[in-house]
Design a protein that fits this description.
67 residues; mainly alpha
Length: 67
């Protein structure tokens, strides 16, 4: 997902003061606002968050193969 899409999602959730955040940190704030774990990029070997819209990006970011 491109950063512009993440920013739009954050805005739609009413998140403020997001300027200057890294993509990873912004995604974690979106995850938390949606009531999910704020775990983007922290996965080691396996992710059980199959409904997360950031899952594919997260696994790529952390170097974990998609299972």
């Amino acid at each position: 997902m491109k950063i512009q899409e993440v920013r739009a999602k954050a805005k739609a959730l009413g998140l403020k003061n997001t300027f200057g955040l890294s993509k990873a940190e912004l995604i974690r704030r979106v995850q938390k606002a949606e009531g999910n774990f704020d775990c983007f990029g922290r996965v080691k070997d396996y992710c059980d968050q199959f409904q997360c819209c950031f899952r594919e990006d997260c696994l790529s970011f952390s170097g974990t193969k998609i299972k």
